Amino acid sequence: MNFLAHIFLSGNNDAVKIGNFMADSIRGRQFENYPPEIKKGILLHRAIDSFTDAHPVYRKSKHRLHEKYGHYSGVIMDIFYDHFLAKNWNTYCDIPLELYAEAFYTLLTNQIASLTNPAKGMLPYMIGRNWLVSYASIEGLEMIMFQMDHRTKNRVAMHESIVELQQYYELFEAEFTLFFEALRLHCSEKLAEL
To answer: Which residues contact 23 (CB under 8 A, 6 or more apart)?
Structure first.
């Protein structure tokens, strides 16, 4: 899952959201250096990633892209799944996506001192291009994929994956819906355990 899902699955706890958001840049046991609620977000992020990577429905979606995109098929699939979350946002959340995203950007801006350097560096681009809302449209996804191509020095033409998204759109969406229900349950249990 990508940013939108990670943030949403953090529930209503702002510190958990911050930890979950920046967890990719925190290695090994470095999470122990953070306050308890941020630490919880980091550990939740890792639990989401492990659950996602091992889930047969997600693996089926990802496999459809693997031959062409190799290692990057997982990155692309995470973004596709965020697209379906954003597109169907009203099914999962009572707060409109635009307001939810704006509140999260404000949270990050107000708590910038808590963020890792990579998260601080990404923040202006995320806010400036409104990534969380951009996930909802094909055009927004294409923009994000072009940015990912730039960040990965064009190792794979990720922006071309929009073709596969459109080709298998209904199938990907059905797989996302099935998978996301299982992931939400897993996260509820994990948050209670942490």
So the answer is: 6, 31, 41, 42, 45, 46
Question: What Cα–Cα distance (Å) separates residue 137 from each residue in 10, 64, 99, 122?
Answer: 23, 21, 17, 21
Identify the three-state secondary structure at position 187: helix
Residue 13 DSSP class: -
Would you put residue 11 in left (φ > 0), alpha (ψ -120 to 50) or beta? left
Report mean pLDDT in 10-residue bins for the chain, 194 residues: 94 96 93 93 96 96 94 94 97 97 97 94 93 95 87 84 96 97 96 91
Please name the residues in contact with 52: beta carbons below 8 A apart, sequence gap of 6 or more.
1, 58, 78, 179, 183
